[in-house]
Amino acid sequence: MTEALSAAVALFLDPGRLLMMLLGVGVGLVVGILPGMGGIVTVAILLPFITRLDPFASLAMITGALAVVHTSDTITSVLIGAPGSAASVPTVLEGYPMARQGQAARALSAAYLSSLIGGLIGALGLTLSIPIARPLVLSFGSPELFMLTALGVSFAGSLLGKEPRKGLTAGLLGLLLGAVGPSPAAAEVRFAFNQVYLTDGLDLAIVALGAFGVTEVVGLLAQGGAVAQRTDLGRGWAQGLRDVIQHRWLVLRGSLIGMWAGVLPALGATAGTLMAYGHVVTSSRDRSRFGKGDIRGIIAPEAANNAVEAGDLVPTLLFSVPGSAPTAMILGALLAYGIVPGPRIVTEHLDLIYTIVWSFAAANFIGAAFMFAASPLLARLTYVSFNRLAPGIILAMVLAAFQEKQHYGDLLTLLALGILGYVMKASGWPRAPLLIGFVLAGPLERYYWLTINLYLHPADWLIRPGVIVIGLLLIAPFVAGAIKAIRYPTAPEVSPAERPPRRVAPFSLFLLGVFAYAWWTARTFLPGAELMPLSVAIGGTLLCAVQIVQEMRGRGGPIAAEGGTEEEAPSGEVVRRAAGYLAGLAGYIVSVWLVGIRLASGLWVLGFLLLVARQRWPAALLYAAAAVAGLELLSGILGVRLPRGELLTLLR
Amino acid sequence: MRQTRFTQGALGLLLAGLLLAGLLAAVALPGHAQQAYYAGKTIEILIPFGPGGGTDIEARFLAPFFEKHIAGNPKIIIRNMPGGGSILGANWYAQNAKPDGLQMLATSGSTVIPFILGVSRVAYEFSKWKLVKVNGVGGVVYVSPRTGITKPEDLLKPATPLVYGGIGATALDLTTLLLFEVLGMDVRSVLGFEGRGPARLAFERGETNIDYQTTPAYLTQVIPLVKEGKAVPIMSMGFINERGVMVRDPASPDLPTAYEVYQILHKRKPDGLLRWKAYQTLVSAGFSYQKAFWVPTGTPPEALTALNESIDRMNRDVQFKVQSKQILEGYTILRGDQTEAAVLRSMRVTLDVKKFITDLLQQKYNVRL
Lengths: 652, 369
Hints:
Strand order of the largest sheet of chain B: 2-1-3-12-4-13
Strand content of chain A: under 5%
Number of domains of chain A: 1
Number of domains of chain B: 2
Oligomer: heterodimer
Helix content of chain A: over 70%
Number of strands of chain B: 13
Shape of chain A: globular
Number of strands of chain A: 2
CATH topology of the largest domain in chain B: D-Maltodextrin-Binding Protein, domain 2
Radius of gyration of chain A: 24 Å
């Protein structure tokens, strides 16, 4: 093993390969910054190179790129509140409020350092675990995988905000959205409304972009001004580094959670990051700052999402079972060189594995260093009037959504989730449980179904040691919470002034309708396929009913459990303005359908700059032209065909 | 040494560039040989699956070789349009592709099986397209030693009940389910795995005890288990040749095919049986003719010729031979014009076969199509 290690160092230090790795790092950093685009896009861009390079060079390039995607996606998440990729949503929840408070630099430096450490721990873990990973991975049977996803869902419980009922309902809504599409249990496509587009279910990247990206951009526009509301940036850098050192064990725990989520093919990057976030919230005594910019909520997930990529390589290399689309493409690249991942790779290609590990570690260093250097410049963006940034950001999000399936439905989903996200944010419904529910819905349902079918007698799987251990982890926070509640009973203090009016929120009624409809529809699903949606719909219906009753009694609960200290509850005026912006976005998306994405984007950007940002004609024209050119260039690189408008097709 | 390989690559690129420049100059010279149809053009390959799947990886692997071997050296770009298990992309192609040879559709067994079964969402028809290339794959069935099965004769009397881990009854797994049916085996199928890889992990964990993998995955992932005594290979799914006859899998010629195993178990040939016809149909659509590229009918003949000839040139390319070994998994890539008739014939299913499959799906697996 040491021999292979040193051989790999020599292979890795070859200048030509180092250059390729740097190229990969560059592409990874740029794609990471683009909202909503992550590893898949990166690898897709780089794949054309691979057959033209030797295997070591091309793997150095691809691993280099994958290693840093989650380093640079922090920029977008922190500075504009649009998730740089689905796995950086916790960073949006905590980092963006910090940027609003003028602490962007602190958030960024903490994020980079934890990303770096997470990546290095991942690389180390990968190195050490290669000889023993096979039995380790195989010891996780379907019951353990099911229990792990259940544990992940229970972490959502700690992210419920001030009102557990709303958080729980949001989590159920996430599970319901995750149930759209094919059932793992039976040949039934659920909630597809006869649309082929929906038969594969909703896309994670689009859901995250809509519920977080669109929501934050619209919210910020409605409030006006720049991202940062304070200008006391200055000393934040060092503070961020100190934060990481202070919370060093958190970095380690985050990295390990991420690593494991990557190693087990059932979970994946986003689930790993969210679980790390859930873990840090669960294990913290003082939870009052979470959702308003708590540095701990950045550190653990950022460490996790870099470690995930290293963990993901374990099943890819040892079992030929990739845990995500990017690693599936790495698998393809390896096959093109005649290298077959699997049991034999450890004996036959150990030097290659270590080249991958070294590239991964080195890329983490280079990526973090580069982002450190570039960030002061990028952080200035938070002082620019947001009106001027918004058109470019929205265009990038629209393209990111559209490149998923290249179907008009992508844009409608983005819009619908954007509206849903904003309404939730404005009326104090936490969105993190929504995403956790959505991400884990698939594996939760799948592994429950497989467990009860592979282990026909419940005792066969319930007494497995792994199941018992995870089960204890699962109930521990609840037991601790109960003990605390008994020992230190606190009376809820709601001053009369804070008491909300006796009024039923339309959104609660809407949710009731959604759950009730799902209940009604799910009754007719095939046996097995109905299990998850039906229980979710029934639970959601009941919770919504209770919520509405409480609202009628004037106990709807305080408003805003997340979303920054300065903006506890957006005023009616702000909400009205936001509705206006959402309508504008809807108009844009309809016009994409009518006149095609190029013309619609150009006109929309121009209109926005003239009417909203009040820019002068020449500047606005230049901006719009540049935006459309950028759209054209990006879609060319990504292999996206920009659709022609229906109206134009008719005229032709 | 690898340093030199890299330098050689750079040199090669340089040479290729010079060569290309020379070619361009030659093409630009007036009165010189006629211009190739694809000179200066771009071909788009539409993949109706997401990035990272088998069809996607194969197409991305083939793209540079197509660039090299199609006369005129067109640029190839890949475009993914996933959705509805490839139905969305194939429907889009059927409605929008122009017969100019500039856009090809990649299909797999997941595109063919819903078409054969007449799924209502399918709006495409293979007979309206011309085949560019096709290549296949085989499959191997193996069991756990705990089942006590060591040879095909034991399949009907295992020591413990057989449990199979599958993806879904309407996915490619349908073929395996039908195989158990044809042979009269008693297997409990647990469906719901996200792919063959995770299903194999379940086999290794002992959660299932009978499994199949495509032959390449079998050779690389399961053979090591066989050597450790953790898996016992039993038979291959069989391979359908151009004449529509089931022969031994070229990548696992030592294993008896399903056809042979039927004879061993039931002491007669399965030909003529409805269930056998259904099985053979699915083997050819889902395995032997699995991965295909198509262009719309009406594509100019010079374009079709250029595409078809590129396959021959590719197969003669030494670099291609070496690099394609794992991607094409030991199976040959065939010219479209020579195999089109056989491929289309394999998709034509008599009504009774279709009814047999849909009835089986409905009764045994509760599937409504």
